[in-house]
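2024-03-11 09:14:02 DEBUG pipeline.ingest accepted 1 chain
2024-03-11 09:14:02 DEBUG pipeline.ingest length=137
2024-03-11 09:14:03 DEBUG pipeline.predict start
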Amino acid sequence: MPWVGSMYIRFISPHWAAEARTYSGFFGPAYACRWSRKTPDWTADELSRELSWFSDRLNVPERLYKATGRGTRNGVCWFRDTAAEHISRARYVCWLLGEAGARMAELRSRRPGTVLWRDDHQIVALAERDARHQVCA
């Protein structure tokens, strides 16, 4: 029987974050959409509610980068597959962003990269070298 490890889930936008060597996550677009005057009130209200929930229930990682001989590399956050409510709410935030015209995608990986930090709901990992080849649809 093949070994089955943990699955990690990340929600991304199509915007490349060079400092992390991967695509940007969903929190930046969610806050930008929340405060945009173009966002319908109902969407902004829902985003506020969801972002507040995450603020209350998701730790800010203690370590987000790694110093290297060539400078610093930023890590990226992934949900652990056991963080069911966090993932469900992140999917809803991404749906709201889609309704507002922002493209988002969900990535799944058993190998998210070198883990820099972890807690019960998430990890911070350095992106693999081939992160640009991950499809952002």
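2024-03-11 09:14:41 DEBUG pipeline.report The helical segments are 27-35, 41-57, 84-99.
2024-03-11 09:14:41 DEBUG pipeline.predict end
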